[in-house]
Amino acid sequence: MQKRENSYYTQGILSGDNKVLVEMYQEFLPLVKRFVMREKGSEADAEDVFNQVLMQLFARMKVKQFEINSTFEGYLFTACKNIWRRELNKKSKARVTNDEYAEHISEASDFSRAILEQEMWELYEDHFAGLSENCKEVLSLHLKKVSGKEIMEKLNYASEVTVRQRIFKCKSSLIKKIKSDIRYRN
After folding, report:
1. Residue boundaries of the structural domains of the chain
2. Cα Rg, the chain, nearest whole Å
3. Which residues contact 23 (CB under 8 A, 6 or more apart)?
4. Is 25 left (phi over 0), alpha (psi -120 to 50) or beta?
5. pLDDT by residue, tens only, the chain of 186 residues
């Protein structure tokens, strides 16, 4: 039974099945929200983490088949916890002053990182431009931290769940386009 339940969710993610995605948001997102809010985050942070995990799962399943050896809920929750803790860790490290940071990084690695970041940005921009107008608008609003409710009202979506699904699908499409680009593989 457990494997059937896991495959139900993983196949739902892979196929973009709205019914499965809605069930996942309704069943698992509240657990993630409680955890993130207990750990110095907001509801929006929790939604971002949840969406990020779903995108990572989608990308990972597209690349190779893997098996979840626990319950899907346990796997998903653990992945969300790990991502949130990484985010908190990044925020605490961001408090280091630029002078202290500069002492630990050589000019060569700083320059290399800047080139790589620029190339990644150009790759992102190229593929973002190729998205549908609706996807561009949804992702732009999402990246500006506009709430799901505001996006729903602005773009006349039926519910916030629909907004989250649309964000997920648009991000997945963008990731797929980027990963299929030879520049990404190089």
Report:
1. 1-96, 119-186
2. 18
3. 12
4. alpha
5. 334 578 888 888 888 888 988 899 999 999 999 999 999 999 999 999 898 888 888 877 877 776 777 788 988 888 888 889 888 887 776 655 555 554 444 445 544 554 566 678 778 888 988 999 999 999 999 988 899 999 999 999 999 999 999 999 999 999 999 999 888 877
Contact 14, 115 (CB under 8 A): no
Fold adopted by 1-96: Rna Polymerase Sigma Factor; Chain: A (1.10.1740)
Say which amino acid occupies 28.
F
CATH code of the domain occupying 119-186: 1.10.10
